[in-house]
Amino acid sequence: MDHHFQVNLKGLIDLLSNHLYSGPEVFVRELLQNAVDAIRAREIDEAEKEQKGYKGEIVLELIRKQPGKPATLVISENGIGLTEEEIHRLLATIGESSKRASKGEGPTDFLGQFGIGLLACFLVTDEIVVVTRSARDREAPAMEWRGRADGAYTIKPLKGALDAGTQVFLTCKEGAEEWFDAARLEELARGYGGLLPYPIRLIAGKSNRQINRELPAWRRKFANQAQRKKALLELGKEMFEQKFFDAIPLNIKHQDIQAGEIDGVAFVLDHAPQVTSKPVHRVYLKNMYLTERADNLLPPWAYFVKLVVNTSGLKPTASREGFQEDQRLLKARDEIGACLKSYLVDLSHNDPEKLAQLISLHELTLKALAVDDDEFYQLILDWLPVETSLGDMTLGEYRQRHGALRYSPTVDEFRQISQVASAQGICVINAGYIHVKKLMDKFPHLIEGGRVEQVDSSDLTNSFSGIPESRQEAGNRFEDLANKVLKAFQCHAHLKCFAPAELPCLYTISAEGLLRRSVQQTMDIAKPLWSSVLGSLSPSSGGPAPFASLCFNFNNPIVQKLLESPPREVSRRAIELLYVQALLLGHHPLQAREMKLLNEGLLGMIEAGLVSQS
Amino acid sequence: MNRDLQEIWDQVDLLPLCQTKVALIEQGIGLADTLNDLEHGYNFRLELVNCTNFTGDNDKALVAFAWLLAISDRYPEKFPEAHILWSYKWMITNVLDFPSISRAQIEETMADLALRFERQGPSSKPILALRCKIAREFGEWDQVKHYLTLWRKAPRVGLSDCLACDRNSMAQMNGALKRYKTGLKIAEPILTGKLSCNSVPHNTYAYFLEVLVRLGRHREALRFHELGYPLVKDDSGHVSDIARHLIFLVLIQDLAKATQVFNRHLGLCLASRVPSDRFHFFRAGVFLLRQLAKSPSKFGKLQLSGRDLPWRGEKTSDSHAALGWMEKEARTLAEQFDARNGHSRNRDELDGLVEMEELIRPLD
Lengths: 614, 364
What we know:
The structure holds 2 protein chains of 2 kinds.
Chain A: H1 9-20, H2 26-48, E1 58-63, E2 72-77, H3 84-92, H4 96-102, H5 106-121, E3 125-133, E4 142-148, E5 153-158, E6 165-172, H6 182-193, E7 200-204, E8 207-210, H7 225-240, E9 244-253, E10 261-269, E11 282-285, E12 288-291, E13 305-311, H8 327-350, H9 352-361, H10 363-372, H11 374-380, E14 385-388, E15 391-394, H12 395-402, E16 405-408, H13 411-423, E17 429-430, H14 436-446, E18 452-454, H15 457-462, H16 472-486, E19 491-496, E20 505-509, H17 511-525, H18 528-536, E21 548-553, H19 557-564, H20 569-585, H21 592-613
Parallel strand pairs in A: 1-7, 11-13, 16-17, 16-18, 19-21
Antiparallel strand pairs in A: 1-2, 2-6, 3-4, 3-6, 4-5, 7-8, 9-10, 10-13, 11-12, 14-15, 20-21
Chain B: H1 3-14, H2 19-34, H3 38-55, H4 58-74, H5 85-96, H6 103-119, H7 124-137, H8 141-153, H9 163-176, H10 180-191, H11 202-214, H12 218-232, H13 239-251, H14 255-271, H15 275-294, H16 318-341, H17 345-356
Helix pairs in contact in B: 1-2, 2-3, 3-4, 4-5, 5-6, 5-7, 6-7, 7-8, 7-9, 9-10, 9-11, 10-11, 11-12, 11-13, 12-13, 13-14, 13-15, 14-15, 15-16, 16-17
C-alpha cells in the first residue's frame, strides 16, 4: 500500500515566513501575481476561442463592517477562474505544480504558482476564502473554497450566477492590522503592481480609484528629449527620494527570445558612492516588482547608477526576490553595460562639459570601465585624473606636457621619490591607487606611439648627477666607509647631487626589498618552525646582497662636513643616524637592531658633543 | 586609536579586495609597528591575511600569519589562538605553492596546525581535508583515497571549510583521482547555482573545463567558461583558474579570445611571486603560443612590447622569444616542484601539452 507524505501546513507556513519571504507584505505581491497569471491565462483562452473585447481588471476592496471588528480584504479579478477539479488539483499538488510551471506550460503556469501564492496569505490571515467561476468551462458552477491555517479546508458549489474570475477574501488576523490599512495597501499595490498593464482599482470606504493610472515615465511619449529627461529625473526623485545627475533610458530587445526584453532607466548618482556599497534598485519581472537588489544585473564597474528596470525573460529564484545566475542573466548584464557605456561615449562626443562633471563625481567607475573595455579606454583616457609628483592633473594634460607616462607602481614607492622627483622637476604618476597601474599597462598597446616607463627609486637616483671631479677621492672614501657601516643592513650607499639640498640622504627600497624587510622583522620574533619557513620562502631572501639603497646628497651641508672630516667613530655614528633618520622619514618601522643603532647613536653623539665642549 | 591609523583603517574598510587595499593595509602595519601599537598591528595583519586570499599575495600572507602566530603564542589571553586558526588552513595550501619550502617543513607545519586544532576540540574533518591535499601534492594516491574516505565521513565542526568550499575541494579531489563523473556529481549543487561562497563557483567552473572537454561535453564546458571567467578575470588571486580558462579557449580553438585573455593577464602573471601560479599560467601560455606559432598573424596581436618583459628578441619574432622563455621558465618551475614533491607530475603536465593538442577542435 502506498503512503503519502503528510505536509505540516503550519510548519510550511513558518518556513515560508521565516526563511523564504522577506516579510508579510509579500502576500500582496502573491495575490497580484495570481491575478495577473489568471488574466493572462484568460487572454490566451479568449484568443483561442477567437473572442475579442476582453480586458483584464483587478480590484482590491478593503471592507470594515463594524468598528472593532477585523477588516476584510477582497481581491477580485476577471481572469480564467477555476473549476472544482482544478481547485482539487492545485491544492493536492502544491509543489509539483510549480514543476509544471517551470517547464513553461501555458494555462498551467497559472495553476503552478497559485497554491504557493495563496499560502503566503496565511502570514496575515487565519482563513482564506476563494470564490471562483471558470471562464473556460461556462457550464461549471461557481465554487467556494475555504481553507484554514491548520490545513483543514472545505469546498462547495455556490448557487447563483457569478461572473467568470476569482475573488479571494482575507480576514485580518490578530497582529496583522498594519496590512489591512488603506494607505499601506495602496503603497504596496502600487509598489508591486505599478507597472502592470491591467488596471488595479482600490476601494476603501468612499474612495474608489485606479492606482496605476499612468504609464511609467520611460514608456510615455514626449515632445522632445529635454521633456523626456525632465520626466525621468522627476521619476527618479519620486522613486528613490533623491536627486540624480542624469537619467539613461534602457530599451533592450534581445534577439534570443529566452532572454526577453529589458526596459527602464539607469539613474546616475550625483555623488561618488563607496566602491563596496550596494545601492538599492527597483527591479521588475514581467511588470511585477521583484526586488531592490540588482547587483548581479549590473557589471562590476557600474556602481555609479541606480536602476529601475523591468525584465521579461530572466528566471527568478525560489523566493522570487532575485534572479538566478545563468547565461540569460549574463546576457542581460552585458546589454545593460553596453547601454551605460554608449551613454558615456555619447557624452564624450556631444557634451564634454557634462562628461567632465561626471568624471569628477565618478572617477573610479570610469577608470574601472577603461580597464575593462579597450574601446572606452581609448576614448576616455585623456579625461582621467591622476596624482603626480607635480600635482593633480588629467592624463591628457600629462601627455601634453611630458609625453611618455612615467609612473611609480605603488603608493610606497611614490612616497619615497615624490618629494625628490618634484624637486628635480620630474613628473611621476602615482599608480598605486586603484585601477591606475592597469591603465598604465594598457597604454602602449592601445595608444599609437604610446610609451610608459615604470620609475623605480633606483631609476630616480641613477638620474642624479655625479659629484664634481675634484671631490671624487673624498667621495670614494666616504662611500667605502658608508658601505662598510651599512653592509649589515643590506643597504648599498652611494653619493650623488640632488635637490632639495636640505635632504641629507634618500633611502629607497624596491617592493621586493620591502617584503624582505618584513620577512626579517617577522623572523626576529617567530618561533623556529615559522622562522625556518619564512627563511625558505624565497631562495634569495636569506642572501646577503643589498636590497635597499641610501643615496647621500653631496649638496647637503652635513654630508659636505662628513666628506671633509677624516673617518672617525663620530663619522660612523653619523652615517648610522642618517640611515635611521632616512628610514623614519620614509615611514619604515625600525627593526630591533636599527632601534639599537638609534639609541646608541644618539647617546654616542651626545657624549661626543659634551666631550668636545669640555 | 591614533588618528592616522584610524584614517587608514577606515579607508581599508571601504576598498574592495585589490592590490590597493593590500598596499594600504601594509601602510597601516608600518605605522602601527612604528607606534608600537600591537593591537592594531595584529588587526591589520589579520585583515591582510584575509585580503591576500583573494589577491594572490600568498607570500605576504605567510609573513603576516607567522607574526600573528608569534604574538598569539606570546600573549595568548589578549590574542587567543582560536582567532587565527581558520586562516592557518589557508597557510597550509599557501606553503604548498612554494617549492623552496621543503616537504619536512610542510609536514611540520601541518603537525603544528593539527596540535593547535585539537586543542580547540575534535577537528578531524578540516585536518583530514588538509592531509588529503598534502598527500595529493606529494602524489601519494593511496593516502589520498584513504583521507578522502575519512574526510567525507567525519562530522562537520566549527573549523570545517564552508559547505561550498568543502564540496568543491572534494569534487576536485575526485577529479585528481580521475573519478571525473563522481567529481561532477559532487559539484552539482555548485555548478547549478545552489551552493556558493566567495571563491566558489569561481574555482569549480575553471577546474572542470578540461574535464568536460575530455568527456566530450564541450557545450557544457563553454557554459562554465562563460559563467566562470567573468568571476575571475579581475582577481589576481585566481591566476590558476585564469590559466584553465586560457587552456580551454585553446582547446576549442578560439585563439582570438585566448590571445585576448593572455594579453589581459600576462603582466599580472609575470609579476606574480607565487611559483605555482606562475607555472600554471606559463604552461597555458606555452600551449597558446605553440598554436599561434603555426599561424602567426591570424589571431590578433600579442601584446608583448613593453619595458618589463623578461625576454628579448627581434621585434618580428617577439612571440618566439616569449615561447622559448616561457617553456624554459615552466620547465624550471616544474623541476623545482617535482624535486620537492618526489615525483614527475608537473613535468608530465608540461610534456602532456603535446598529447593535449589532439583534443583541440572548434565547437560545432
